[in-house]
């Protein structure tokens, strides 16, 4: 993919084309927004590109993807939609709204440059962390619905 390819993608909704702002890093990561009002990449993520360019993410082969639904509002985890890197591997996930009220879909992609055995060890660890996050989301949603705490950003 070249930076020219990235500049040409967009979204169509209600038969209208919407430009999607994007930034493709030399290290192989694509950042995109759904709002043309979003700040420029360099303004919002000052210094990030210098940090992430230390790793060539395009050299990490895709190893596995999974997706499942959870009983929580997608906004419980949306701010944590990001790549997570560790030795020889990277995982990324996103939390998406669904058409069902109170249900969100979590999607995970796993990349790893090691052997199959090394990948399975890495995968076992990152899945455990992801399942703990998933459980926290469902319990936070239950607490919100039962009035244990009010709406707002959870820290």
From TrEMBL:
Aromatic-ring-hydroxylating dioxygenase alpha subunit C-terminal domain sequence ranges: 115-154
EC number: 1.14.15.7
Top-level taxon of origin: Eukaryota
The reaction(s) this protein catalyses: choline + 2 reduced [2Fe-2S]-[ferredoxin] + O2 + 2 H(+) = betaine aldehyde hydrate + 2 oxidized [2Fe-2S]-[ferredoxin] + H2O
Pathway noted in the entry: Amine and polyamine biosynthesis; betaine biosynthesis via choline pathway; betaine aldehyde from choline (monooxygenase route): step 1/1
Pfam families, alphabetized: Ring_hydroxyl_A
Xref: InterPro entries: Ring_hydroxy_dOase_asu_C_dom, Rng_hydr_dOase-A
Gene Ontology molecular function: any one: iron ion binding
Record-stated family: Belongs to the choline monooxygenase family.
PANTHER family, alphabetized: CHOLINE MONOOXYGENASE, CHLOROPLASTIC (PTHR43756)
Known function: Catalyzes the first step of the osmoprotectant glycine betaine synthesis.
Entry protein name: Choline monooxygenase, chloroplastic
């Amino acid at each position: 993919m070249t930076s020219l390819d990235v500049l040409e993608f967009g979204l169509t909704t209600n038969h209208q084309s919407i430009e999607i702002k994007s930034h493709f890093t030399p290290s192989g990561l694509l950042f995109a927004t759904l709002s043309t009002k979003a700040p420029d990449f360099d303004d919002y993520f000052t210094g990030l590109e210098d940090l992430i360019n230390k790793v060539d993410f395009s050299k990490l082969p895709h190893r596995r993807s999974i997706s499942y639904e959870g009983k929580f509002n997608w906004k419980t985890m949306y701010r944590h939609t990001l790549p997570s890197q560790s030795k020889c591997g990277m995982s990324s996930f996103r939390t998406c709204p669904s058409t069902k009220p109170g249900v969100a879909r979590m999607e995970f992609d796993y990349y790893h440059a090691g052997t199959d055995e090394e990948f399975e060890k890495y995968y076992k660890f990152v899945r455990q962390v992801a399942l703990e996050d998933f459980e926290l989301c469902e319990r936070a949603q239950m607490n919100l619905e039962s009035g244990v705490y009010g709406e707002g950003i959870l820290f």
